[in-house]
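Loading example: each entry is read as two labelled lines plus one structure line.
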Amino acid sequence: MASQLIESVALPSTIARRRHVRRQRRSQVTEVTPALAWYGLFMVLPLLAMIALSFFNWNSLVAQPHFGGLTNYRYLFQDEILRTAIVNTVLYVGVGLLLIIPGGFLLGFFLSRRPPGHAVLSVILFTPWIVSASARAMMFTGLYQPSGAINSILGAVGLGNLQHLWLSNPSTALWSVIATEAWAGIGATGVIFSAALGRISPETYEAARLDGAGVWREMFSIAYPMTKDFVGLMTMLQFLWLFLGSAGTVLLLTNGGPGSSTMTLAFYLYDQAFVSGRIGYSQAIGVVGLLVGLIGMGVIRFAFRTKE
Amino acid sequence: MQPRATRVKRSLGWTAAYTPVVVYAILILLPLYYLLVSAFKSNTDITLNPLGLPSVFSFEKFLDANRSVALLASSGNSLGVAIGSVLLTILLAAPAAHGIARRAGAFSTFAQVAFGFAFLIPQFAVLVPTYLFAVKTGLIHAPLLFLVLFYAAMNVPLAVLLMIPFFRAVPKEIEESAELDGATAAQRMRHVLLPIVTPGLSTVAILCFLSAWNEYIFAQVITTNTSYTVQVALPLLRSEGAFQGADVDLGRLAAGVVISVVPVFVFYAILRRRLIDAFAAGAVKG
């Protein structure tokens, strides 16, 4: 009824109609522009500013920035710590993804078949994801510390020779930090995967079972191909979370140390800008991070491409 | 929930699959439990009786944690920033999503692609320029206000993309009849549209609230000791030598962690289903 009313009002002449369209277009621009502008001001502009600042020599907030051309970039090539940071970032993100994505997929497949107790398990497994990076890091600080829970348990079960100074030993620090990411990431990814895998109808599996497929075949020949795009998407998101989140996680757990054994690109940027005050150089590191990030996303897209 | 869901045959393989899943669930629950009980214990009790219930329930560690880094005040800061940024995000994103949903065309496509592009901007890339921006505009002296403005910008793209389908589902006729009744655009949004898109709105609000409450690194850079958010205040409970392998006051740290996660866990307990759906939706849109 309402639509009939509209027609009788809006259609008498084409002029009125054209005016209506114009007004609609104008109202659309008024509605969308503030959000676009806000996001442009706080996200897009700073991104461009980062690239611009990377060409400046600017070594303290109180000093004046001077245009230095490629000075910062030339320094990048001699910077040993940067090399460590790139290697660590690749390990951090690579190992993190290898634990989180396949682990999450197995878990998601298990949960999506609705075994008894799956609802309770989903609630528990998702929990770490809502714990902030800061609270998670403090929790693990307590667990990892010299007399903390992990060493106590190892001692109690007679594995005292496996006790370590987890976060202050250069050979275990990076792995200990990555473990905290996997602790939080596998469960949440699994629960989200189970939501996507739950959309596969039971009949599909039924048909496969009649053809003699076992559980592993069901997973690799049905579940994975049917959700491949979604798995690719989650991999991309986890990649970004690990890559960017490493700044906070490392700052909270190890401060990049011992030495530079847990230095990652995102943390190194933070460290150079806010601890060493080398603002210009930190932005050149940011540009390197941007490139590494784009390469990583390209690799993930390629790995999950669907053959035409 | 699915009526046709088939129960998995309890074969040997499935029983075996339970083992790692249950072990992982224990690895999640045990540290959280350990932390919770430690918060109520004395330090000797923590060492001698790590997993048992506290012999005497003591709130001393909570008081101690709050005394040393003002956790309650900083939780208040976090709450204010989170609520403020949720409101600002919705104020910006709801009209934008409506505008995009109502009219197709080059401008709509451009806006959608632009908001989608946000997921490719690495946050650390904007860290330093954002800080410099706060310094240049003087907003660094109103750090909590700045965080409200910044978190809104951080959340607007996802909020817009999540809400578009909800606005699309609202029949045009409802809006047009309200327009004929003389309702202004703002009134239509407030009284007609928003009540209808509440499910989408609450998803957005949940995600934005949690991301603002949990955000660490920007808050760490922007805030100072009178304006710390709870995520920035919490790590200060660690002793100075923590990075050199010194032990920390575990009870106090545990109490601090408990204070910082309680609001989120209450949220989770009430809105569990919706929260997981929201994250899944966020992931799909991202």
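The longest helix of chain A spans residues 14-53.
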